[in-house]
Amino acid sequence: QVQLVESGGGLVQTGGSLRLSCAASGRDFSTSGMGWFRQAPGKEREFVAGISWSGGSTYYTDNVKGRFTISRDNAKNTVDLHMNSLTPEDTGVYYCSAGSVLWGQGTQVTVSS
Q1: How far is Cα 75 from Cα 58, in angstroms, rounded to an integer?
Q2: Cα–Cα dist 53/68, whole Å
Q3: pLDDT tens track of the chain, all 113 residues?
Q4: Residue 24: which region, alpha, beta or left (left: phi > 0; alpha: psi -120 to 50)?
Q5: 53 partner at 20 to 30 Å CA-CA among 22, 29, 66, 76?
Q6: Are 68 and 82 spatial neighbours (Cβ–Cβ below 8 Å)?
C-alpha cells in the first residue's frame, strides 16, 4: 500500500520548535518532489515548503522563510520539516505530499500564545 504517514505534531508555546516527519512507503519516492502543506481552521490548505527529488532545491512560502527547514533522506524514504520560532499563526493540520498527488492523513500543530 502506497502511503505517507506524518508524525511529530503537538502543542507548543510561541517561540518553540517542532520537527515533523513524513514516512513514505509502498514505492520508491526518491524521484518525487515532496512537500508540506498546512490547513488552519476555516482556511484553505496552503503550501508551506517543498523539496526536489535530490534535495538540492528547496522552496518556502514567505512567512516561514528563515524559520522552517525542509529536508529529506531518500535512503529512509522520509521528509522532515524543522519548525522554529513558531507563532499561533502556524497552527493547523500539516500534511505531507508527494507531487501534490499523494497525501498523508495530517498531523496537528497547535501553537499557544
Answers
A1: 18
A2: 19
A3: 889 999 999 999 999 999 999 999 998 888 899 999 999 999 999 999 999 999 999 999 999 999 999 999 999 999 999 999 999 999 999 999 998 899 999 999 999 99
A4: beta
A5: 66
A6: yes
